[in-house]
Amino acid sequence: MPENRRAAAIAVALAFLPATGIADGRPDDLPVCCLPRVDSFRNFTRQALDRCNRLVRLRPRESVATDDAGKLRNCIAAGTRDSRTRLDAALRSLAGKPARDALKYYQGIFETALAGVEPTPDEPVAAYEQRQSSLRHSLAHAWTRFELVEK
Q1: Which of 84, 147, 120, 91 is nearest to 139 (CA)?
Q2: How far is CA 49 from CA 91, 98, 138, in A?
Q3: Count of CB atoms within 10 A of residue 64's CB?
């Protein structure tokens, strides 16, 4: 009986290999997210945005605050500077101009989102959260645009 379960589990696993692309083994078929320089760039932008977001405190029913505005501005400046360096490397790994243009567009939206982490004076929490949600939404759309152009 255990042999039948094991055989069934193996059969199910083998049936899903073509759907996952694991069985192919061809590096040419990797999705664009798996180009090392592009993947590194995308991961960096996500981490930079998260790192700067952690410097902002939301006080319910009050306003948004930062413990150290200078530290937040430095985080934003460093994220912008370092992302541009990684962008250059990612652009060199792309073959087509439309893909490079879409990645540059993503960079512009990322810089807008990163700058938008800094709260305005006495900004209500609800307004800040709504603005952040809109910026994240724009960033996700810019990345999807890049993926569609690259395919």
Answers
A1: 147
A2: 21, 25, 14
A3: 22
Q: What's the total number of domains in the chain?
A: 2
Cα gap 7→3, rounded to integer Å: 6
Tokens for 96?
């087509």
What is the domain extent for residue 15?
A: 1-29
**In the chain, at which residue ranges do the beta strands (DSSP E only) sit?**
56-58, 64-66
Pull the structure tokens for residue 95: 């073959």
Residue 3 in tokens: 């042999």
Structure tokens belonging to residue 10: 């193996």
Alpha-carbon gap, residue 1 to 38, rounded angstroms: 48
pTM of the shown model = 0.74
Q: Which pLDDT tens digit goes with each residue over 93-132?
A: 988 899 999 999 999 999 999 999 998 888 888 888 999 9
d(CA 119, CA 36): 34
CA 105 to chain centre: 14
- Same domain as 35, residue 15: no
